[in-house]
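Aim 2 progress update. The chain analyzed this quarter is reproduced below.
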Amino acid sequence: MFTKIQKVYFGHIDKAGIVYHPHFIDYFHQAYEDFMEELGLARTGSKAFNLKIPVVNVDVDFKKPMEAGDRLTIEVSIKKLGRSSMTFHYHARDQEDDTVAEGTHTRVTVDESFQPTPIPQELRDALEAHLDPND
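Predicted structure tokens:
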């Protein structure tokens, strides 16, 4: 499991004084990028495999509001690996270790014409090491 600390900035806050909900998708995406970099598969990873890995689904459940100055701990794990799809799971906790939000996003490996293509074995091996045993 990969962990990232995310600070909530004033610019992330809406008129209600809490994080504007789309920012959680951004937080999760940033955690994804850092996770892939940790695996040695940063943005250039998809180029190395000659494929694209677009997001095809996003789902977020909000549990507790966050305010400017708060810090989140975001845990990233792999929920599911298919032939060409991969589902990432995100669990965001506050400083009291309460769940703030949970979400998933699913990506699909595609070729240059956006046709699904199998996940390359090197990428699959790196991701399998982070499969959540509870799923």
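The radius of gyration is 16 Å. The domain at 2-128 is CATH 3.10.129.10 (Thiol Ester Dehydrase; Chain A). These observations will guide the mutagenesis experiments scheduled for the next reporting period.
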